[in-house]
Amino acid sequence: EVAFLCGIMAAELGLNVKQAKRAGLLHDIGKAVDHEIEGSHAVIGADLARKYGESPKIVHALAAHHEDEKPSTILAVLVQAADALSGARPGARREMLETYVKRLQDLERIGTSFPGCNSCYAIQAGREIRVMVASEEVTDAQATVLARDIAKKIEDEMTYPGQIKVNVIRETRAVEYAK
Question: Quick one: fold of 97-170?
Answer without folding.
Answer: GMP Synthetase; Chain A, domain 3 (3.30.300)
